[in-house]
Amino acid sequence: MHGVAVSTPPAYAPFHGKQGFPKTQNRSSLYLKHSRKKCFKTLRPNVITAQLGLEPPPFPLDALEPHMSRQTLEFHWGKHHRAYVDNLNKQIAGTELDGLPLEDIVIATYNKGDFLPSFNNAAQAWNHDFFWQSMKPNGGGTPSRDLLELIKRDFGSYEAFLNEFKTAAATQFGSGWAWLVYKANRLNVGNSVNPRPSEEDNKLMVVKTPNAINPLVLDYLPLLTIDVWEHAYYLDYQNRRPDFISVFMEKLVSWEAVSSRLESAKSEAAERAREEQRRHLEVDEDAENDQAVEMYLDSESDAPEAE
Ligand SMILES: [Fe+2]
């Protein structure tokens, strides 16, 4: 049974009230096409707990055959993904994380690398949603023209990108993920990692992450992912991870999903830039006001003393 509310506060509380939570509500809607369904239970008067739901993949479980079998989806989504969601619901029931969007739970529990107990289940729940939405029946092919232009700008060629992505996925030691991401500086970092702004912002990058780590906590905007945990491919490809990766890119990837996410990422990057500009203007205005006060004081000191 899950969703049991507890009356005592959580043992871990690295932040204080809502101030500690990142402002990422908009991004939840940007990167998860289907909002996660929640059911609310009143276990006793004045105690309500929200449960995150398990969303199905956006295609029938046999729709990716023969490249990804129904049996793999039944285990991978029906058992592994379900376990992450169920375990997370148990862990956060009645805590201050209960009822938050999944993406906010991921960033809050990452806690700048000092994971809270529920991080792995939260991140794995989010990663799998993102993975299912990265694929479609009869996928593969080539990216849209705009996306392709950006890939050529940042990797040199589509072949160079493909090679880098496949290499990242194949060389991730043990369990983990490979990602295509959009790098844009974030102003409100919350509990994520915040690399310094640089001229290299606003570009595509390939990254690989171990276990449950994902780009959200590394301050990147994710566009595409492949799950390279063994449970993702073992039933269909046994130990031939490179074969699974090649088939994923040639037959399963949804470039439409990647393009849609790229548009959202560009919008967010533009909003960040506007926010930064506003912040600079406020600093300049403060500096001007300070200077005006200083001049006023100087002119006062030059005036003849009153008798
Ligand atoms: Fe998985």
Automatic annotation (TrEMBL):
One Pfam family here: Sod_Fe_C
| Domain spans labelled Manganese/iron superoxide dismutase C-terminal | 144-261
PROSITE patterns associated with the record: SOD_MN
What broad class describes the main subcellular location of this protein?
A: plastid
* Cofactor list: Fe cation
Give the compositionally biased regions (Basic and acidic residues).
266-282
Plastid listed as a keyword: yes
- A GO CC term assigned to this protein in UniProt: chloroplast nucleoid
Q: Disordered: where is this region?
A: 266-307
Q: Where in the cell is it found?
A: Plastid, Chloroplast
Q: Where is the Manganese/iron superoxide dismutase N-terminal domain?
A: 56-136
Name of the top EC class for this enzyme: oxidoreductase
EC no.? 1.15.1.1
Q: Name one GO molecular function term.
A: superoxide dismutase activity
Q: Where is the composition biased (Acidic residues)?
A: 283-307
State the UniProt keywords alphabetically: Chloroplast, Iron, Metal-binding, Oxidoreductase, Plastid
Q: Which reaction does it catalyse?
A: 2 superoxide + 2 H(+) = H2O2 + O2
Matches recorded under SUPFAM superfamilies: Fe,Mn superoxide dismutase (SOD), C-terminal domain, Fe,Mn superoxide dismutase (SOD), N-terminal domain
Give an example GO biological process: response to light stimulus
User: Which family does this protein fall into?
Assistant: Belongs to the iron/manganese superoxide dismutase family.
Q: What is this protein called?
A: superoxide dismutase
Q: Which organism is it from?
A: Aristolochia fimbriata (White veined hardy Dutchman's pipe vine)
The organism that produces this protein has a lineage beginning with:
Eukaryota, Viridiplantae, Streptophyta, Embryophyta, Tracheophyta
